[in-house]
Specification:
The structure is a homodimer. Chain A has about 140 residues and is an alpha+beta fold. The first copy, chain A, folds into two domains: about 1-80, Orthogonal Bundle (Arc Repressor Mutant, subunit A); about 85-140, Ferric-uptake regulator, C-terminal dimerisarion domain (Dna Ligase, domain 1, 2-Layer Sandwich). Helices cover about 45% and strands about 20% of the residues of chain A. Chain A has six helices and five strands. Chain A has helices at about 5-10, 15-30, 35-40, 50-60, 105-115, 130-140; strands at about 65-70, 75-80, 85-90, 95-100, 120-130. Chain A has a three-stranded mixed beta sheet. In chain A, strands 1-2 form a two-stranded antiparallel sheet. The longest helix of chain A has 14 residues, at about 105-115. In chain A, about 20% of the residues are buried. At the A-B interface, helix 5 and strand 5 of A face helix 5 and strand 5 of B. The first copy, chain A, binds a DNA duplex (25 and 25 nucleotides) through helix 2 and helix 4.
Chain lengths: ~140, ~140
DNA sequence: CTTCATGCAAATAATTTGCAGTAAG
DNA sequence: CTTACTGCAAATTATTTGCATGAAG
């Protein structure tokens, strides 16, 4: 169980009800768009404003709590900042699943960066395809 | 030299002046946002409409001529469809550079997909960091 | 208490749409 | 000629901002 309040205070942000809930639903569902977050948090806090979501997402990204996951053909999703990983993205249902990268890819990326004199900060690997569930549906 | 007219006709699209120019500037500069394209093509075709750019980008993506490159914290860029590759993206100046992936990463991605019963269609690898030029600037 | 965060409403930016006129084949 | 494409203007959607009120520490 993650302590969202502490997570926020450590970065100098007040632990408001709204922020706690944003973190909690992002944590629960893994990857959410602005609208997903809004819809979900509204269930427990109906007077929530979209502007608050936008302001907080930007703020929490600056503070390194949230990370943007831009996706081909859709609005970005957001996830909690965590160890580097790749995404399997289903182009049918929109599902996003985390997968740990492993050292091998890591080494490859670092070698390339070194060769190009590129100061690498962050990797982003997205694999687009059709997930097992959607393959089932299509077959039927 | 790429024959843009043929490229378009092969996919059942008319080879208009606008489309030829969009392809030509994207080809020339490698990676461009909607606004970049608009600004550039306007130089040779001042009466161009932004709506035309949007319509054509969508159309050409459907026909597999253009590919979207979504980027953290910015508007997407577009590139000509070509062999799989990764992107080095400079977070200072916005530069995007192509790099060929190599078989090693390819194999890793396919293995993971197989293990997850994921039907892989498309890879997207973006490495974010600071390019050589911007490192120079910072140092000075 | 004091400061920072929220929610609203209004402003701005980004994208899409409908349609009459125009150009490609 | 005929169909598809463009450009405009209007509509829609997405995001940002300013400010008065309210909550956190």
């Amino acid at each position: 169980m993650i302590d969202y309040a502490q997570m926020l205070k450590e970065r100098g942000l007040k632990a408001t009800f709204q922020r706690m809930n944003i973190l909690s639903v992002v944590d629960k569902y893994g990857h959410m768009s602005v609208d997903d977050i809004y819809a979900e948090v509204c269930k427990v806090h109906p007077s929530l404003s979209l502007a608050t979501i936008y302001k907080n997402i930007i703020l929490m990204m600056e503070k390194g709590v949230l990370v943007e996951v831009p996706i081909v053909g859709k609005k970005s999703k957001y996830e909690l900042a965590k160890a580097d990983h790749m995404h399997l993205i289903c182009t049918e249902c929109g599902m996003v699943e985390d997968k740990i990268c492993g050292e091998k890819t890591d080494t490859i990326f670092q070698d390339i960066s070194k060769k190009e004199h590129f100061n690498l900060h962050k990797r982003q690997v997205n694999l687009y395809g059709v997930c097992e569930k959607c393959q089932m549906k299509e077959a039927s």
